[in-house]
Specification:
heterodimer; A: 114 residues; 11 strands; 49% strand; B: mainly beta; 6-stranded mixed beta sheet; 5-stranded antiparallel beta sheet
C-alpha cells in the first residue's frame, strides 16, 4: 500500500535551469497539494489541484512556477529559470475527498540551486 | 488572515518526563485542527484531527485536546523515539471555492534524552 511518492528526492539545478518535481498521490486519492518548506520556516501552501483542474493557486508565486495534475500520470510542479531563493524542500500531499480529510504527505524533494 | 503559533519552539525532556506542546490559532470558522509529526528528512506524518472544542484524541503516549483558541499535545512518559518536530495546522473555509488547504505553524522540536 504505497503512500505518496515524490521524485526525485534530491535535485540540484544551476541558476536559470528548469526544475520538475513529480508527485504520485496515494491510491484512490484525487486531491493533490503542494507545500514548500524553507529552513526554520513552516510549511507554506502553494497550490491545490484535482485531476485536470487547479482549484486554488493562491500560494504560488506569480511568475516561473506552474503546476498540473493530468488525467493520467503524476502531478508536476515546474519551476522555470530557478534562482537561489527557490532552494527548499517541496512536499506533496494527497487526500481522498479534500473536505475534512487529513492530508498524507510524501517525503519531499529537496531542491538546491547553485 | 488565518494564523497558527506553536510554543515552545524547542523542548528538551528526559525520558519519562511528561509535558505539553501548545498550538494557538486564529481562524474564521475552524473546520479542523490537525497534528503531525515530522522526522528529519521526512514528510509530515498525520497524528490527529480535532473538530470541536472539548474534543480529545489519544494515541499511545500522545493526547491532543482542543479549546476555542488553542490545542495542546500532551506527551506522557516520553521515550527517545518520540523525538521529532510536531506540527499543528488548521483548516478553514476558503474563499477559493472548495479549497481545503491547511495553514501550518512552525512546529515544536522535541528532543527526549535517555
Amino acid at each position: 500500500n504505497a503512500g505518496v511518492m515524490q521524485n526525485p528526492r534530491h535535485l540540484v539545478r544551476r541558476r536559470g535551469q528548469e526544475a520538475r518535481l513529480r508527485c504520485s498521490p496515494m491510491k484512490g486519492h484525487s486531491h493533490v497539494y503542494w507545500y514548500r518548506q524553507l529552513p526554520e520556516e513552516g510549511l507554506k501552501f502553494m497550490v491545490y489541484l484535482q485531476k485536470e483542474n487547479i482549484i486554488d493557486e493562491s500560494g504560488m508565486p506569480k511568475e516561473r512556477f506552474s503546476a498540473e495534475f493530468p488525467k493520467e500520470g503524476p502531478s508536476i510542479l515546474r519551476i522555470q529559470q530557478v534562482v537561489r531563493g527557490d532552494s527548499a524542500a517541496y512536499f506533496c500531499a494527497s487526500s481522498s475527498t479534500g473536505r475534512d480529510s487529513p492530508l498524507h504527505f510524501g517525503n519531499g524533494t529537496r531542491l538546491t540551486v547553485t | 488572515e488565518d494564523q497558527v503559533t506553536q510554543s515552545p519552539e524547542a523542548l528538551r525532556l528526559q525520558e519519562g518526563e511528561s509535558s505539553s506542546l501548545n498550538c494557538s490559532y486564529t481562524v474564521s470558522g475552524l473546520r479542523g485542527l490537525f497534528w503531525y509529526r515530522q522526522d528529519p528528512g521526512k514528510g509530515p506524518e498525520f497524528l490527529f484531527t480535532l473538530y470541536s472544542a472539548g474534543e480529545e484524541k489519544e494515541k499511545e503516549r500522545l493526547k491532543a485536546t482542543l479549546t476555542k483558541k488553542e490545542s495542546f499535545l500532551h506527551i506522557t512518559a516520553p521515550k527517545p523515539e518520540d523525538s521529532a518536530t510536531y506540527l499543528c495546522a488548521v483548516q478553514a473555509p476558503s474563499l477559493q471555492g472548495g479549497s481545503e488547504k491547511l495553514v501550518f505553524g512552525k512546529g515544536t522540536k522535541l528532543t527526549v534524552n535517555p
